[in-house]
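Structure representation.

___
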Amino acid sequence: MTPTFPDVSISTERLVLRAFEIADIPAYTEMMNDEPVVGWMSAPYPYTGQDAEEWVRRLAPAERTKGRGLVFAVTEFLTQRLVGLTRLQNTDWRTRATEVSYITAPWARGEGYATESVLAVAQWLFRDQTFERIELRTAADNTAAQQVAQKAGCISEGVLRNAWIARTRTEAGWTDIRTDLIVWSLLPEDLEGVADQMADAGGYGAYPDWN
């Protein structure tokens, strides 16, 4: 039987990380068509409401049920609006390792939400799921993603040369470009002290069977 992550939500003082819902489709569609997101992600462009519905109804849930990972919609605790995505993928259950990626909506940038969500997921993985390693990969020129990795306490391990295809806007539209990937990692001992900081900020809680 394929191991899977539990169906949970994770909360911090400011955020609730939960499964995607049908009501998220309009905001998710808008977020995925934002220029910085288009440039660094491999999702279709333009990203349609049909694409978003396929993601919410089938693709995102399948990441968990197939044992590959877990997808969280990142929402504000007070307003419940969608402000981003945090995703676990390429999970290796034998080595207890997984890869994390994140997107922040344009209307929520500069608030530290990506770092907060990554740290909350990391604490949950290390404390409750007995994982031993989280890996991140950021495009060489994606300084915003790199800043999140650094603020979360990740350690840069090296460069995968020419390993990713990003996109850049030209007069003719979006054009694919090759780029390097920086590999980062986070281990349980890297979070020493972070738990106390999170507790001071309200901590986090995990709730099974969201919905």
Residues 4 and 10 are 17 Å apart (CA to CA). Residues 49-65 form the longest helix (17 residues). Residues 207-211 have pLDDT under 50 and may be disordered. The two ends are 25 Å apart (CA to CA).
